[in-house]
Every structure is written in C-alpha cells, then in structure tokens.
Amino acid sequence: MLNCYVLSPSILVFDAIAGKPSTELVDPLTFLAIQQHCTLSEDFIDIVPTANSITLYLRDLKRREFWQNYILEHYLKFEYQRANATVHHVPTRYGGAYGVDLTALSALLNLSVDEIITQHSSFEYIVSFMGFLPGFGYLTGLPPALHVPRKAVPSTKVPRGSVAIAEALSAIYPSASPGGWHVIGQTDLKLFELHFTSPMPV
C-alpha cells in the first residue's frame, strides 16, 4: 500500500515501506512508473524516485491535493515503459582479496561461497536510481536468497570497483569510500570519470 505525506506545501512524498523490514522493498518499478506518468505533466519542478519512495516537487501548491489523490487512486494502473536500455556486462572477480566479506557472508546466509557467486552472477540487474556517490547505481534484481542487512560495522574504506550487496540491492562502488555493504567481488569497470564524454556510462 502506498503512503503519502506532505513534506512542505509544494512537496509530496509517496512511500510504501512504513512498517516493513528494510529487506522487503517494494518493486522500484512502481515508483519509476509514477515518475514516467508525472513527467508528462508540466506541474513539477523535479521528480526524485528512490528504491522505496518518490518525491514530487510541484510548481503550484494549489495542485498538491489533486496529485495526492490522483496518484493514491491510480498508481497501481501505471505501467513502467522500459526504454531501449543498454545492457552492460560487468566482469567480476569474486572472493579473496577482491571480495573480503564473501566468506563471512557465506556463514551469515548459510550458503556456500560458490552458491553466492552463482546466484549473484546469474541475474540481470536494473539501475533503478543513482545516489550516495557520483556513478553509484542502486541495482535491483538481487535474488531473495542473497537479501541481507547492511554490515553492523561499516568499513572505513571500500575500494573502487567493489561489487557489494545489502538489503535487497547490489551495487558497484565507483570510487573508494566508507561503506556498510558486504563486498563480494571487484570489477575494473569505470563508473565515473570526469574526462569521459559521458562521465557516468550507466
């Protein structure tokens, strides 16, 4: 069920996670479908989707009540229209020095290292939204068997290119930074370079 609250007179936030564990994310395509639908209107200054919410910035606060009621009534009918997406193949080295959390994760999930690698590498992921760092894409599509809370104690430095999982998501660290995700591998794929024509290739 979608919830709505008024963040300010001209800002609406819709979310669907109230009372749910962090691993039970609503399908992010729900919010992407709302985004696509609202983009057809000129009523919005900005529209910001995340894994479990979407924030609408209205030009005219007089339109707030209309959009609040309209979306709550119709959002289940919205269908996400997938564009001609680019498929990226991500060569990944799993385990050892490249995936420092893989062994501990194996015990936590009660899966062998090979089972984790097979599951993680056998699915196609969608970059559902960006955040945290330039080039950091939140990837949906992680198989349920690999859903896991973030680390209790975050790492002070996660290397660039680290492939990691947390909650119901996977991600690749575009640069070295602190982080609380479980690192299971590493890739040489560059996700953010200022000198690229397109700094963020995904």
Largest sheet: 4 strands, antiparallel
Helical content (DSSP H or I, runs of 4+): 10-25%
On the 0-100 scale, what is the average pLDDT? 87
> How many H/I helices?
4
Cα-atom radius of gyration: 19 Å
- What is the overall silhouette? elongated
Percent of residues in beta strands: 25-35%
| DSSP summary, beta strand count | 12
Sheet/helix structural class = alpha+beta
User: Major sheet: order of its strands?
Assistant: 1-2-4-3
Instruction: Name the poorly predicted regions.
Output: none
Question: What order do the helices and strands follow?
Answer: EEHEEHEHHEEEEEEE
N→C terminal distance: 31 Å
What does the model show?
There is one protein chain. The protein is α+β, with helices and mostly antiparallel strands and 202 residues long. The chain is built from 4 helices and 12 strands, in the order ββαββαβααβββββββ. Strands 1-2-4-3 form a 4-stranded antiparallel beta sheet, with helices on one face. Keywords: ATP-binding, Hydrolase, Nucleotide-binding. This is Allophanate hydrolase subunit 1.
Can you summarize this structure?
The protein has 202 residues and is of the alpha+beta class. Helices cover 20% and strands 27% of the residues.
